[in-house]
Every structure is written in C-alpha cells, then in structure tokens.
Write a structure and sequence with these properties.
With 70 residues, the protein is an all-beta fold. It has no helices and five strands. The protein has a single domain, classed as SH3 type barrels (Roll). 0% of the residues lie in helices and 44% in strands.
Length: 70
C-alpha cells in the first residue's frame, strides 16, 4: 500500500459524481480514519473548503513538489 500521511497534498483518482468531485481535484489528508481510509478536505483557490469526506487510498495519489528517488 502507498504511504499516505497527515497533511499530504493529494489528488483524487477517478470521479465521485455523488459528491460532486471529478478526477484530479486536489485535497489534503486531515485524518486517518481506518487502515487505507483517509478524511480528505477539498478547498478552492481561496482556501474555502467545499468537501470533507472519507476516501480510500486506492482513489488518491500524493502530489510531490520536489524530486523523489525512483
């Protein structure tokens, strides 16, 4: 399993139409709910949250802003 941590910036992989979210939307992990399940907060460019929901690790990817060894 991928290593996710609190406050990781993540992108949604796949749409969540019922929640009004589409693939690629960016959020932050704000809580670990269970093994492989995280509470993710999605905010707009002004920092206003528009969604807070549980997301399975398989539906997330960590965004990296600096080089990482392969």
């Amino acid at each position: 399993m991928k290593d996710f941590q609190l406050l990781d910036v993540v992108a949604l992989v796949g749409d969540r139409h019922d929640d009004g979210l589409v693939s690629g939307q960016v959020g932050v992990i704000v809580e670990v709910l269970d093994d492989g399940v995280f509470e993710v907060e999605f905010c707009d460019n002004e920092g206003r949250p528009y969604a807070l929901l549980p997301v399975c690790a398989e539906r997330l990817m960590v965004l990296r802003y600096s080089p990482v060894a392969a």
